[in-house]
Amino acid sequence: MATIKAGIVGYGNLGKSVEAVIKQTSDIELVGVFSRRDSLDTDAPVIPVADVAEYADKIDVLYLCLGSATDIPEQAPEFAKYACTVDTYDNHRDVARHYSAMQDVAEKAGNVAVVSTGWDPGMFSLNRVYAAAVLPGAQQNTFWGPGLSQGHSDALRRIEGVASAVQYTLPAEEALDKARRGEAEGITGKNAHKRQCFVVPESDDAALKERIENDIRTMPDYFVGYEVEVNFISQEEFDKNHTGMPHGGHVITTGELGATRTHHTVEYTLELDRNPDFTAAVQVAYGRAAHRLKESGQTGAFTVLEIAPYLLSEKSLEDMLREDV
Amino acid sequence: MATIKAGIVGYGNLGKSVEAVIKQTSDIELVGVFSRRDSLDTDAPVIPVADVAEYADKIDVLYLCLGSATDIPEQAPEFAKYACTVDTYDNHRDVARHYSAMQDVAEKAGNVAVVSTGWDPGMFSLNRVYAAAVLPGAQQNTFWGPGLSQGHSDALRRIEGVASAVQYTLPAEEALDKARRGEAEGITGKNAHKRQCFVVPESDDAALKERIENDIRTMPDYFVGYEVEVNFISQEEFDKNHTGMPHGGHVITTGELGATRTHHTVEYTLELDRNPDFTAAVQVAYGRAAHRLKESGQTGAFTVLEIAPYLLSEKSLEDMLREDV
């Protein structure tokens, strides 16, 4: 199989992880990193993002490593004109709109745009759909953490007056046990978790801090409706205690089946030492799928739900049938 | 969406569970149970299996609830001539051959044959492929139980001179922990598990028991290479202690990712009160997928690896994009 030629757009934590994960594959080759900056700390070619159109024939897949808050909605459709794209758009309530925007552009351009990969959305979405599809009347709960939420930290950092910020999400242990027993009725993502924010303000001004806290608590989708804890800390404390990026979580689904309504529990668990590395690993694998879908004549937008599992693997289907089924 | 018209072939534990699970769905309707027997303990129509050809126009999906040891290899291709089929063929090392046999017949007949659904193969296969695809150089282990293995019990019961039999598979706890730490090198399915057989012989004759035990220990794929414990017990003891059907297990995958080789663990766990009910639930969901694939113009054999997740669900893709991604 020919090597898949890849580009990375954006070179934050996720872009750097994608670069490193691509080095761990044998079938994907990095052509370059597209950036608005002239130089980056990478040994890969750095290409002005404005030149992306010139690379349409040299790149099979563009990994869009851009923030979900504003960059993906504003910029992703443009990139789908030039190559297949894979993004990690993580605003769950807006996925359908983003999907539709990418569909129009990718179909017209004859490309495949895979949207909202990563682990949630992504691997967790897959597990929600599989488990609920096989268990009629399933009870299903998703729990996050303990760990750092990249999307929510990103949202905090975009608030004016914030110098540094992280957001940790913590699941309630008793909620996990209730979910496994199938007694989680009434438990929602919102009441089973706490959103803990550590924020370094640009100054110690009380009015500034009050406005930042208000901006956090009133941010729709991200914070409204959750138990939110806002802690203002110094840059020193931030650098010392809040630069790791562990994460993980559980998708727990239960259902009562058959004539005697027997109890069945499906649990999918992730324990991730470094969130952007795993997000990148999922994104990289879906680049393989995007390329193969296009090669087989498909175009348009795809979520992970519409992509057959074997398309993600470096292995041939024949090897999988022999070794993995 | 029109109701999917289903038939069940075979009415053992699995067939009965499929019947009960179909009742829990709102989009699948049971036309009848195909059987060689005249009457069955069911309120569904019982149809002679020899008449299946006459039902080709009245049935969308045939759920093949037949044993893997001989029935599926011998009979499944015949059924694929008349309708889409879904089976739970569980002889892992023979899946590729079975797939190929079903491919020929189903393609010629314009039907879709989904092979080897259930949970292992089935949901476990999916999780093995997804986790290994996203973690380059993954270390992966599958653990079964504690629980009853239907396929292996079936194999025991087919040995001449066996009146009743069950086989339990037990995972080693320390093997689970090693796998989560990524230190499971050298651990195989075979040395992390014990296969425990409880067999009721047709008579108490010593030579009979010796021959049965030898037949078990030398059965390829099923028992050769495993630590096997064979216990001969009375029918009374069997009826009292060995008629439940719990099962479950874990697929544990770890990988080291990115520039600093951070550790990542993916674990998929099933805890099933009644194995045939869950196997049936997965099989029923893949019937939905088989029908939809055929409706979209596809034909031939499919494993779970080749089927996009959204095709399994009663929900529309639009609802999933809004609620599950």
Automatic annotation (TrEMBL), chains A, B:
<dbReference type="InterPro" id="IPR010190">
    <property type="entry name" value="Diaminopimelate_DH_Ddh"/>
</dbReference>
<keyword id="KW-0547">Nucleotide-binding</keyword>
<protein>
    <recommendedName>
        <fullName>Meso-diaminopimelate D-dehydrogenase</fullName>
        <ecNumber>1.4.1.16</ecNumber>
    </recommendedName>
</protein>
<dbReference type="InterPro" id="IPR036291">
    <property type="entry name" value="NAD(P)-bd_dom_sf"/>
</dbReference>
<feature type="binding site">
    <location>
        <position position="144"/>
    </location>
    <ligand>
        <name>substrate</name>
    </ligand>
</feature>
<feature type="binding site">
    <location>
        <begin position="117"/>
        <end position="121"/>
    </location>
    <ligand>
        <name>NADP(+)</name>
    </ligand>
</feature>
<feature type="binding site">
    <location>
        <begin position="65"/>
        <end position="68"/>
    </location>
    <ligand>
        <name>NADP(+)</name>
    </ligand>
</feature>
<feature type="binding site">
    <location>
        <position position="247"/>
    </location>
    <ligand>
        <name>substrate</name>
    </ligand>
</feature>
<feature type="domain" description="Meso-diaminopimelate D-dehydrogenase C-terminal">
    <location>
        <begin position="118"/>
        <end position="273"/>
    </location>
</feature>
<keyword id="KW-0560">Oxidoreductase</keyword>
<feature type="binding site">
    <location>
        <position position="275"/>
    </location>
    <ligand>
        <name>substrate</name>
    </ligand>
</feature>
<dbReference type="Pfam" id="PF16654">
    <property type="entry name" value="DAPDH_C"/>
</dbReference>
<comment type="similarity">
    <text>Belongs to the diaminopimelate dehydrogenase family.</text>
</comment>
<dbReference type="GO" id="GO:0047850">
    <property type="term" value="F:diaminopimelate dehydrogenase activity"/>
</dbReference>
<feature type="binding site">
    <location>
        <position position="195"/>
    </location>
    <ligand>
        <name>substrate</name>
    </ligand>
</feature>
<keyword id="KW-0220">Diaminopimelate biosynthesis</keyword>
<keyword id="KW-0521">NADP</keyword>
<feature type="binding site">
    <location>
        <begin position="35"/>
        <end position="37"/>
    </location>
    <ligand>
        <name>NADP(+)</name>
    </ligand>
</feature>
<feature type="binding site">
    <location>
        <position position="169"/>
    </location>
    <ligand>
        <name>substrate</name>
    </ligand>
</feature>
<feature type="binding site">
    <location>
        <begin position="88"/>
        <end position="90"/>
    </location>
    <ligand>
        <name>NADP(+)</name>
    </ligand>
</feature>
<dbReference type="GO" id="GO:0009089">
    <property type="term" value="P:lysine biosynthetic process via diaminopimelate"/>
</dbReference>
<comment type="subunit">
    <text>Homodimer.</text>
</comment>
<keyword id="KW-0028">Amino-acid biosynthesis</keyword>
<dbReference type="GO" id="GO:0000166">
    <property type="term" value="F:nucleotide binding"/>
</dbReference>
<feature type="binding site">
    <location>
        <begin position="11"/>
        <end position="14"/>
    </location>
    <ligand>
        <name>NADP(+)</name>
    </ligand>
</feature>
<dbReference type="GO" id="GO:0019877">
    <property type="term" value="P:diaminopimelate biosynthetic process"/>
</dbReference>
<dbReference type="InterPro" id="IPR032094">
    <property type="entry name" value="Meso-DAP_DH_C"/>
</dbReference>
<comment type="pathway">
    <text>Amino-acid biosynthesis; L-lysine biosynthesis via DAP pathway; DL-2,6-diaminopimelate from (S)-tetrahydrodipicolinate: step 1/1.</text>
</comment>
<keyword id="KW-0457">Lysine biosynthesis</keyword>
